[in-house]
């Protein structure tokens, strides 16, 4: 930035606290949504990888079709499908319930609130999409564990499930960790597409603030910084895990 | 003495020049032609009729009524939004009838007549579900991202839940699905949207607006006589019912785009 840019920036004034609050709200929503998607897609991804590696043809085929379907179509189209398409198939009563507000409250303090349909469909869409990627990364980790490990475990009297749980999976996850963390970063960035279906995450809030303030540079500048902070935190985590792994395998 | 005559002549001319320009009304009568800028692709305000290949529309009807009142021929000059002010300032047209929203910024460079049309932030909802603005606070409302409609709703109805979509058709799909109970846009845009919906009988545009944008006739800056004549004519048209007729021709119940008239000429000056 040269000095003239800085001076226009300051002359324009920075964002009012109200709009910074919007961006912060959006950021928290981005983090919350990312966390849910990461957890769900990792659990489902393990089941998915297990299905693909199970050696049972129908199961492996079904998982193959799933990958083809979710990896070969744009995420935005998938989100539109979950938000605009699926409701057309649901009975009217179900949809009305999903769209309504349901809260669990003690006295006047609300403890839990049923999330908006925008949130639900964005999470479902992101999980379905991310599972295909996360599952393949876990699978590559599984394949990276030498077959002799499983055979040795079986020879020691482990059942196939036990061999997977105690011998193969721990090693597989260690191999899969670097690509998985890259995938988690993608998930965090992909949540921004949720803005198209009304998920009030960081990009949605940034656009809202921009439309009201016309301070395009400031709004997107702050939004970019917030994304960078989140991704950087993930990267620090990745480095930490890798160092720990390196120590362990020595 | 000679010097003095020359000086008088020069001063006289200097005085004459603005005077000659300041009376466009006289020029129009002398020429026998009223030149009006109108849209050629913005139905139903101004658009090329598929059959006659002529520019027709609500704006053109108003221009026509004015030309009749003056007893001159009407000449339509097609324009787009960006050209409206340049055409006026360059003297290429006498008046602009092109869905011209009155704003303070524009009023610095053109004369505006009193408004003859208003387009406001209105709503589409399932029939019978939305009758008054007070209900809006409890609803989920679909809006277009970044529009003034969204900002107005947030300011006036902070308790309403707003969901912003990329454009109006998306918002309408959300309404159909039941994700939102109403969607918001400018009235004329909503009616245009509804006209193309197969199950439009299920929906309605409740006859209220939460804000209004006023549409006026643009005249060259400083042409007071011309502006006054436009104002008088507009008031006459409202008084003798011709304004209602023009409105009904484009937004009446028998048209493809029926929109209840909630603004009359003279409601705001």
TrEMBL record, chain B:
Signal sequence residues: 1-22
Cross-referenced SMART domains: PBPb, PBPe
GO biological process, one term: amino acid transport
UniProt cross-references to Gene3D superfamilies, sorted A to Z: Periplasmic binding protein-like II (3.40.190.10)
Residue ranges annotated for the Solute-binding protein family 3/N-terminal domain, each copy included: 33-254
Matches recorded under InterPro entries: Bact_solute-bind_prot3, Iontro_rcpt_C, Solute-binding_3/MltF_N
Domain of life of the source: Bacteria
Domain Ionotropic glutamate receptor C-terminal: 33-253
Keyword annotations: Signal, Transport
GO terms assigned for molecular function: ligand-gated monoatomic ion channel activity
One CC-aspect GO term: membrane
Family: Belongs to the bacterial solute-binding protein 3 family.
Protein known as: Amino acid ABC transporter substrate-binding protein
Organism of provenance: Candidatus Dactylopiibacterium carminicum
């Amino acid at each position: 930035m040269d000095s003239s840019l800085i001076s226009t920036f300051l002359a324009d004034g920075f964002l009012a606290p109200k709009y910074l609050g919007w961006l912060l709200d959006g950021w928290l929503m981005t983090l919350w949504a990312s966390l849910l998607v990461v957890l769900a897609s990792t659990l489902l991804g393990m089941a998915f990888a297990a299905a693909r590696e199970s050696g049972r043809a129908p199961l492996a085929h079904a998982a193959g079709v799933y990958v083809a379907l979710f990896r070969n179509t744009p995420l935005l189209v998938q989100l539109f499908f979950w938000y605009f398409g699926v409701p057309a198939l649901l009975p009217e009563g179900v949809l009305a319930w999903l769209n309504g507000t349901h809260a669990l409250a003690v006295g006047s303090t609300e403890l839990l609130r049923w999330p908006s349909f925008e949130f639900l469909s964005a999470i479902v869409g992101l999980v379905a999409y991310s599972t295909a990627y996360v599952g393949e990364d876990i699978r590559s980790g599984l394949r990276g564990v030498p077959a002799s490990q499983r055979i040795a475990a079986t020879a020691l009297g482990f059942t196939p499930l036990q061999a997977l749980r105690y011998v193969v999976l721990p090693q597989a996850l260690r191999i899969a960790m670097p690509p998985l963390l890259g995938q988690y970063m993608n998930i965090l960035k992909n949540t921004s597409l949720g803005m198209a279906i009304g998920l009030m995450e960081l990009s949605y809030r940034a656009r809202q603030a921009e439309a009201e303030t016309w301070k395009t540079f400031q709004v997107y500048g702050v939004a970019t910084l917030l994304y960078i902070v989140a991704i950087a935190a993930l990267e620090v985590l990745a480095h930490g895990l890798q160092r720990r792994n390196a120590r362990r395998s020595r | 003495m000679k010097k003095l005559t020359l000086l008088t002549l020069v001063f006289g001319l200097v005085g004459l020049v603005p005077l000659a320009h300041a009376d466009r009304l006289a020029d129009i009568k002398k020429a026998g032609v009223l030149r009006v800028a109108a849209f050629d692709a913005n139905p139903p305000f101004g658009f090329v009729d598929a059959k006659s290949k002529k520019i027709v529309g609500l704006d053109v009807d108003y221009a026509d009524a004015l030309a009749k009142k003056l007893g001159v021929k009407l000449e339509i000059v097609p324009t787009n939004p960006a050209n409206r002010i340049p055409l006026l300032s360059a003297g290429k047209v006498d008046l602009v009838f092109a869905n011209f929203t009155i704003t303070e910024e524009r009023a610095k460079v053109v004369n505006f007549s009193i408004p003859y049309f208003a387009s406001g932030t209105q709503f589409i909802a399932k029939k019978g579900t939305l009758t008054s603005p007070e209900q809006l606070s409890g609803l989920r409302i679909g809006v277009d991202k970044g529009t003034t409609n969204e900002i107005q709703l947030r300011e006036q109805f902070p308790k309403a839940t707003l969901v912003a979509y990329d454009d109006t058709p998306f918002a309408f799909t959300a309404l159909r699905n039941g994700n939102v109970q109403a969607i918001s846009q400018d009235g004329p845009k909503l009616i245009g949207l509804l006209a193309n919906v197969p199950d439009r009988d299920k929906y309605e545009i409740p006859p209220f607006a939460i804000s209004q944008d006023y549409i006026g006739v643009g005249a060259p800056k400083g042409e007071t006589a011309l502006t006054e004549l436009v104002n008088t004519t507009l008031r006459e048209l409202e008084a003798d019912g011709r304004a209602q007729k023009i409105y009904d021709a484009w937004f009446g119940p028998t048209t493809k785009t029926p929109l209840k008239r909630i603004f009359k000429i003279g409601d705001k000056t």
